[in-house]
Amino acid sequence: MDTVVPPEGTILTERRGTLLLIGINRPAKRNGFTPRMYKELAEAYTLLDDDPDLRAGVLHAHGPHFTAGLDLPAMAPLMQRGEKAIPPGSVEPTDLGTPGYRRRGKPLVCAVQGITFTLGIELMLAADCVVAADDCRFSQLEVKRGIMATGGATLRMAERAGLGSALLYLLTGDEFGSAEALRLNFVQKVVPAGEQLAEAIRIAERIAAQAPLAVVATRLNALKAVEEGPLRAMGEFLAVQQRLSSSEDAAEGVRSFVEKRAARFTGR
Questions:
Q1: What's the distance, Cα to Cα, between the start and end of the chain in Å?
Q2: Is 14 within 8 Å of 58 (Cβ atoms)?
Q3: CA-CA distance, 247 to 244, in Å (whole number)?
């Protein structure tokens, strides 16, 4: 029996082994985000980071579309007051490092399909890997609504595609498809529509099979290189490698290599 979706939408979570599937669920409104949905999304990201049994997340959406972005009539009052829809201390879904909020540590794979506008692009760019269906329609159209993208698009689109290519879409709000998103490095894989979630889960399972401490450290070091520069990232190499090499998982990695078997990592 289908679950009734509340008018303001909801975020559904499902544990699948060591994965947390995080589903955007308001298909009747093209998954437009309300304050409730954004708060629940932050709660799901916080659960992913805080639960030691979870190793990776998969962000996806129910229905034919990923999200049309913010439900502006519902979100505008918060925006006008300069308030956020998520409680302080929770993991920020756009992963911007806003003071008072946490950044995500564990890896996240995102599956997108259909309409993926504004916040949808920003959420996928904040993920670590993105699988796009070949029917995606992307648009960062805030300029058409008299506002500015403040969820990371102005930062990450330019970083991935170069300033000119980013401004082409940021300043026009023009739509583009999955092939263009792949060319601009906004997504990492394009698959036939309907296969995006399965492929995202497959990638997340491969990530979750690796040593958890090493995965988190590798992810954070790569982000530091992008955000703060290679020299800052290199400055961590010796200390991080010393810590990791002293872990139980590092010992298990050596044993599994010698014994020619799959490693059984515990995150310790």
A1: 41
A2: no
A3: 5
